[in-house]
User: Fold this.
Amino acid sequence: MSAMSKQKPVRRMGKKGLATVLMMVALFCVWPLSARAAGEKEATQKKPVMKSVAMFGYAVSFKDSVVCLTEIQTIDSAWIEPAHNFLLDRSLYSLQLQMYMEQQGHKNAICTIFYDKNPRKLQRMWRKVYKRSQKQDGLRYQELPVSAFRLKAEEYRPIIMEESTQ
Assistant:
């Protein structure tokens, strides 16, 4: 016997079966989108809240071979998005550190801000970053005390999205 004769016949799907499959595909494509839209609606309805947040800054200038780490500072009026616990306008805080670094002569420094509502957790993170920055060969370490660099609270400005009328 040949290999062709051993194959099972192809079973064809009727109109009802095809309609059922198409309905299931449509359901599985639309259902996640509707759930996502409902979740986004809930997230956008929550207003940002002002809370006390502990934060520190980390800056690296590879051109000058310098690593700077600020002390942990508490900002009493930081805006937090309650749905995801994100610090709003995070880029403005890192911009403060970048401007300070440029004033000190370290152009093109890469700056970031670490934050947490719990100061103990942030202290552990600070120690990890401190240890890693000490291990980096060829980079000079500088700690920036509060007297040299102080983070300032940023004013929250909500983004207003206008609907296009096209």
Summary: The chain has two domains: 13-45, 49-144. The helical segments are 15-45, 90-103, 119-135. Residues 41 and 119 are 31 Å apart (CA to CA).
